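Anyone able to model this chain together with 2-acetamido-2-deoxy-beta-D-glucopyranose?
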Amino acid sequence: MSTIRPILVVAGIGNASGTGAATARLFAKNGYRVALIARNADQVNNAAAEINKSGGEAAAFPVKSYDYTDVTNVFQTIRQYQWPSQEKVEIRAALWNASHGVWKGFLDVTEEDIQASAQANIVAPFAFSRAAISAFKENDIDDHGRRGTLLFTGATASIRGNVVTSAFAAGKHALRALSQSLAKEFGKENIHVAHAIIDGGILTERSLARHADSKSQEEYKNNHDIRLSPESIAESYLYLTNQDRSAWTWELDREWHFIGLRRRFGGV
Ligand SMILES: *[C@@H]1O[C@H](CO)[C@@H](O)[C@H](O)[C@H]1NC(C)=O
Ligand SMILES: *[C@@H]1O[C@H](CO)[C@@H](O)[C@H](O)[C@H]1NC(C)=O
Ligand SMILES: *[C@@H]1O[C@H](CO)[C@@H](O)[C@H](O)[C@H]1NC(C)=O
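re: yes, here you go
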């Protein structure tokens, strides 16, 4: 194992209360430098500052949009970024967590909705994957047979369409197809590609804010049967990244425990 500190690149940080940020925090605690990509400059700067403050090393890379050119360019900026300790930059892990959700009946879906879903769920992750894989190919193979790990956050809509998800599910199905194709093509080149189906609501400040009164907020926060925690998803991403090549998993399906509750609380 080389002594160079590895870098995790995460796209999709939102306002730092969800999966992307929890993954960045956990990897930072485990010796990774983390490069954070998001569209909101203030939020991504705050997220990086927070990780720095708690002893990690993070840098923020805001993007104007998740289009092919911006994603390609920001990855190039990350590759050229001078981290303070001047060690060689070695990107070992990358997570595509950005997304664009559309929840509308089919006849209400506009061309803009379809374009936005295709952009964030297909076109931009193609650019991200290309840049990540190109970076991994320059890495040496480590003691566990790896050059790098590319992770994708999926959703229930990755494998199942539903009444209001035509545009979203089409995008998420495509993202899964991309990740499966890459897993097959690059596994033999020591690059691990994995897709995680997050089959349910995730506890974030935003999802919590959707619960009107404090009683249902408390229940949502404390009842582990009705929502997923970003920290435990992050643990799964670290686990995937640490897998030995002989046991690589392509897909994790985080099935929700209680079907009845899924019906009650959504989960598209
Ligand atoms: C966090 O620390 C890194 C490295 O020490 C530095 O390059 C970066 O500018 C800092 N970022 C913020 C937002 O404080
Ligand atoms: C990260 O992925 C989760 C799970 O799909 C999603 O809820 C969240 O909105 C994503 N974050 C961003 C910034 O897109
Ligand atoms: C994140 O967004 C939610 C609602 O959208 C809000 O309640 C929360 O305060 C925000 N958190 C931060 C750190 O900005």
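The pocket of 2-acetamido-2-deoxy-beta-D-glucopyranose (ligand 1) is lined by residues 45, 48-49, 52, 57-60, 84 (CB under 6 Å).
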